[in-house]
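Input record (Table S2, row 693):
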Amino acid sequence: MGAINAVVSLAADGDIAILSVNSPPVNALSQQVRAGLLEGARQADADKTVKAVVLICDGKTFIAGADITEFGKPPAAPSLVEVQDAIEGASKPFIAAIHGTALGGGLEVALCCHYRVAVPSAKCGLPEVNLGLLPGAGGTQRLPRIVGVEQALDMVTSGKHVDAKSAHAAGLVDELVPEGALQASAIAFARKLIADGRPLKRVRDLDDKVAAARGKREVFDAFRKANAKKFRGFLAPEYNIRAIEAAVDKPFDDGLATERKLFIELMTGTQSAAQRYVFFAERQVWKVPDVPDDTPTIPVHRVGIIGAGTMGGGIAMNFANIGVPITMVETKQDALDRGLGVVRKNYERSTKSGKLTMADVDKRMQLFTGSLDLGQLADCDLVIEAVFENMDIKKDVFGKLDRIVKPGAILATNTSALDINEIATAVKRPEAVIGMHFFSPANVMRLLEVVRAKATSKPVIATSMQLAKKLGKIAALVGVCPGFVGNRILYARSAQANAMLMEGAMPWDIDKAIYDFGLPMGPFAMSDLAGLDIGWIPEKTSSSTIREVLCEQDRRGQKTGAGFYDYDEQRNAKPSPVTEKIIREFAAKSGAPQRTISEHEILERCLFAQINEGAKILEEKIAIRPSDIDIVWINGYGWPVYRGGPMFYADTVGLANVVAKLEDYGPKLGKNFAISPLLRQLAADGKRFQDMK
Ligand code: 3H9
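Output record ((S)-3-Hydroxyhexanoyl-CoA complex):
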């Protein structure tokens, strides 16, 4: 008894042994934890004075999974399976005592214990799918033996965390024990087991739940069909399903072998590498080298929002969701009423899906104060301007705010492209000015670009990042340039897409290539959705671009039933002969030779131009690190997470290949196109974006 190693210890409470893991931050199953657990389990099993063993963790959580930082490195003994065999095959009961999260390998260890107890706040899950993996330590074989095939399919393919109460109802947890009394309750549970002479319950020996699904292919077929859209492009969900099929069809050990084989295939593939990279990228993105964690922040008790349009309303909902009161200012009463009406309607829609009750809706709406007077913003701690994208208007608003809003408050703009340094010249406190670029619909989209201007103070940055986290967003801190990170890269892609229209490709050819690559839609479908008339002024139109001509013909996108595409009543898109004619005429006028452009070329030109723009953004230090660019594109533009973002994708293609292809395309890329010196340098050095320090 005593310390087994630096992270695992064994103690005794009478005839009950307590095997504890203490490996912050999340007690992941590192080599040291595995070694400690194996040794501890063996010692406890061999000790004749011990009648049962409680496995418990220190700190904020039970074991949260395998140690992801070890993935991709040579395996270090002992394996997790050895640990599990020692526990499951022990001659006395092991009881997992769960608090925090029992995830992945952590739950798989708990599933090898003979019993599981948990506090009500605990959660259990097999989130490997989110890392492009499947549970590779028996999870796909043991879980369905307890919870049944349907729930197991749902858990392994969604990766969701199931709360202790549901886990108890499903049989995954044997007993719920009081919060704060986990260890004592687990010991009491163990003593009762022994007193009652209950047998060692080995999950691997259970069969009735999996037998119930044997021969029923339709269960799996229906599940695949129902989730086809959600799983599109991802390998891991399908592999998880196959592993559960093996649990149903095969004896336990054969099922384990199938699971192992599928796990290794995923682990060595590009998709999982991408998804593991994104896991760490999502955590890195919060770290700002020159704004340390202990930077003072500004308490935000009230938020002011200027503009009650789609953007302003969506932004406001974020704050109402976390209980922060909002003062919403508009110039006209009817616009204000309309804006608040839309917010209420959006909330009411959530009552239909059961997410909110009507009482919740009322509570949120009570947080709103509407006003036509900017003066009402005086006592706000943060004001976000979401007015028309026009520099003069924005500067005028900021000038007024400067005179009204109390000192120390944050003055934020939701501009998606304008120069925030210039906006900041309108105030005498430029250190208070920052960009908070929400993406539409702002109450739904997870991304927030926090834009740091030249004079923005560190507390203003720290507060904005902290707020983003509280709002449940993922925020990337970026610098000022036209379009910031996300839209600037989008423009680079649009330039190629538009150029290819002139060379002979149709919008649907380009959209298909992008869709098949894994994005939810291509550039032209996206324009139709957003509306082609953004920034279009009917009085000034001169048929000078394809887009202008489409607008002139009242083809302004989905909302008018036609844009690049024709739309039916259900808004299904069809290639449009009208658009095709307009494009052909434009191309003829431009004199560009027409040809068939392969899907391969479409993709390379669109994607490699994006990568090149990303490299320029890094050169100019507009983004802190390549992975921040990936976070922006995954969360703001639907870049498929299994391809890890444009910069990670570039690494998988090889930067030398990217440069070589850009050189091949040469003048086709446009007269202003230049290959980024940073990209060239990395390619010449045989490096990846991931190697940048
Ligand atoms: C698996 O188990 C495979 C097996 O089936 C088969 C094996 C053969 N490893 O998220 P946080 C770090 S796959 C290494 O900010 P929270 C994280 O990077 C695994 N490190 O905290 C961060 O580091 P830093 C299945 C990990 O309280 C710090 O811990 N399990 C791991 O918001 C704090 O993390 C999962 O996928 C790990 N497994 O959330 C669970 N987990 O401070 C993954 C975290 O340097 N983890 N770190 O940035 C989570 O979902 C969340 O971390 C958790 C806590 C909910 C546990």
